[in-house]
């Protein structure tokens, strides 16, 4: 089934893991992928252009970018994160196709690559084997890791993890094989054409605001999980790890800011102790009500309480 995480983490395990994979790496300047630097730099120019046009777009276009952001967030949170990376619940074919399309809307790499990186991240959190280790600095964990080559530790340890479930998922592999097509339709054409046809938005406004600016929003919202949620916040479940409870991340991307909880219990489909404040959890629950989702994995209140008492920082309010 692939990586499910562990419900318990001891201080000695964290130290041993860090020691095992934190050998010295080459300076980041020696690993730069300049074409990625240029590509991300160019995209950020387009995001800024979209920001300057924001006051001139029609009201429905503002609504549209937030609708797209919401569904794109679901493609990340309920889709590639909780379903495909952690297998924390099961989804019907129809739901998996829907989440795949939502994921393609974000243009954040294929489900296959995203989930593979994320499993390595969880097994070797904030060590040199972590693709976006917070141990290498805030900028690196936010976006810098996409501008450099994967180091040898990430490759070596990543090759030891089982990804068979991803390769056997027909929806995942369809997107992987036709990723360019799914991105063209879901990321570019759909967000671009709907405003132009439905409420006569101009081509330039639709392109730069509904496509590019909206893309920048979902990218940096996702990146906040790797950066802000590993640097700022409380640690009510495990004070020995970097991941924190960060409400900024909850706000920008559908309830993923309960990060100290998530790294303490990575197999919980809710990624949080509190379902009511978690949009992605409510979506999965609604899909379960419709018969589209099942086998939602959850941590017992007793296990949560024991973890809080054993490793929490005392900030839990329950």
From TrEMBL:
Keyword vocabulary terms for this entry: Fatty acid biosynthesis, Fatty acid metabolism, Iron, Lipid biosynthesis, Lipid metabolism, Membrane, Metal-binding, Oxidoreductase, Transmembrane, Transmembrane helix
Cofactor dependency: Fe(2+)
Entry GO MF terms: iron ion binding; stearoyl-CoA 9-desaturase activity
TM regions (residue ranges): 37-56, 62-80, 178-199, 211-232
Family label: Belongs to the fatty acid desaturase type 1 family.
Name this polypeptide is given: Fatty acid desaturase domain-containing protein
Chain ranges of the Fatty acid desaturase domain: 59-267
Keyword rRNA processing applies: no
GO terms for biological process, alphabetical: unsaturated fatty acid biosynthetic process
Subcellular location: Membrane
Bilayer topology annotation: Multi-pass membrane protein
Domain of life of the native organism: Eukaryota
PANTHER family per the UniProt record, alphabetical: ACYL-COA DESATURASE, DESATURASE 1, ISOFORM A-RELATED
CC annotations in GO: endoplasmic reticulum membrane
Originating species: Trichoplax adhaerens
UniProt note: domains: The histidine box domains are involved in binding the catalytic metal ions.
